[in-house]
Amino acid sequence: MNLLPKVKHMEIRAGFLAKKLICPDLNEIDVRLAAALKRLPCDPAGIKLELCISGDTGEKYELSIREEHIKITAESPAGAFYAIQTLRQLFREEQVPCLLIRDWPDFAYRGFYHDVTRGKIPTVETIKKLVDTMVYFKMNSLQLYVEHVFEFRETKGLWQSAGCLTGDEMREIDAYCRENFVDFVPSLSTFGHLHDLLEQEQYRHLRVFQGEELLPNFWDARMHHHTIDPLNPESLEVIRSLIDQYAPCFGSEYFNICCDETFDLKCYEEKGYDVGRLYADFVKKIIDHVREKGKKVMMWADIVSQHPETIAELPDDTLFLNWDYSDNAEGIREKVEQFSRSGKKQVVCPGTSTWNRFCEHVENAEVNITQMIESGYQYGALGVLNTNWGDWGNPCSLELGMYGMVLGAAKSWTVDTELNEAYYGAVNSLLYGAEDGVRALKAVSALQEHISWRQVCTNYFLHRYNGGEGMEFLSEEEVGVIQKEYLRISGELSGENWEKDEYRQELLLAAEGICVLAEVSAKLAGYETERVSNTEEWLGKYRQKWLEKNKPSELYRIEEMFLWCEKF
Hints:
The protein is an alpha/beta fold. It is built from 21 helices and 14 strands.
């Protein structure tokens, strides 16, 4: 049987469910459970389904299936909700065996974190579909990474041109999450990663770094020189205003203030300031404001880890998000263990490895997610927040980050899940609806390894604005390898029929995009390469897929790069 996450205890009994139809009594149950049950085939002539819920907390459940009766016993409505997800997966089997399942999660907090700022703003419907996938695999928290892509007064000029998520849209997402037992936590940059805000004329004086960018590379610039000045009283006024506008859209008891990667505080270190003290004092003021609004604080742990003397000053109910996205298993374990010694609460944060790519880096993600979650469990972390970043324009589709999301869901519910044949078979069945979905994903992931999205983007800026000085290229032979492998992958995928065909279509589009990337790179390098792809045709398909699921946002920047390279 294909079940993800893996259940803790399952006892197979003789016989099978008489029919894959249920007849639940929907009149006196939690409306959220009634909606979840309606995702199963219901009919008055179906099998009687009985719900027994003993309390309001906990996620443990028991699912009993007999030939003519299904019973769900749970600690809370949430536990019953996850039992229903297990039943939904069982109903995909040709025959549903009689059985008894007892199940519970290893981590209470099982979250997904998605970047909506750096290039691609999803529609509300796309986010709802993401929530549907999350809860199917028993995840219970969602965060969207926001810098300026909300209708803040301070960034009106930015979102009027590039788009944003409105307050009404955030409230709609929040309501949908609550209906599905998902805590929608606001996440907002409040110290570092405020590049676009601070690029505006009226706020530029609040940026710590006051130098000039050497190259007009907006994707690279956005990753640097984005720290707001903690010594300027206006800075706190701006941050408080952003929080005041954003927080009312969410029902969560938490607020993620981020406060990561405040690189440019080193400018003050050079002037003799205690950077750890500067950081902690400003963060405490932000925390105080969030707490005044009745929220508990989450924040990234990277800077406080560099200044451990400051950790004790922060409130005990602060939840620290301890991130690492590498495939260094020993380094990950040491990092989680080290933070555990602080005595503060931590959530471990691995990543899907989708950034700077058309397709998630499966090999890296498997090691990273596995080791972060296992280390978190070993050292008493409260939960898992699996991240899906969008650096450098966010070219990767959401679908091609879902393998990593499902792995995080599977491991955070059942830590001892092994990546074996049974696991891959379950992913193929439940995520892709295809016999060899994981194999196809790994093939496209490996194809991306031949060429760097970030390097080609850098070459574009160097060629356009710096006379080509400093560019680095693949060899002609390496371009040929990519073309050959792309043709093989596309040939195989084109002949397949997946139940969840959107994943297959996105893999085809990504593979073609990687080939286009190689061929435009060859063009910049001056190679006489015979083309096997067409840039404008691919861009047309890419644009169509983007706009089916996302707002226009910064699609124009990706199109501009490819078209400029093509016309050179």
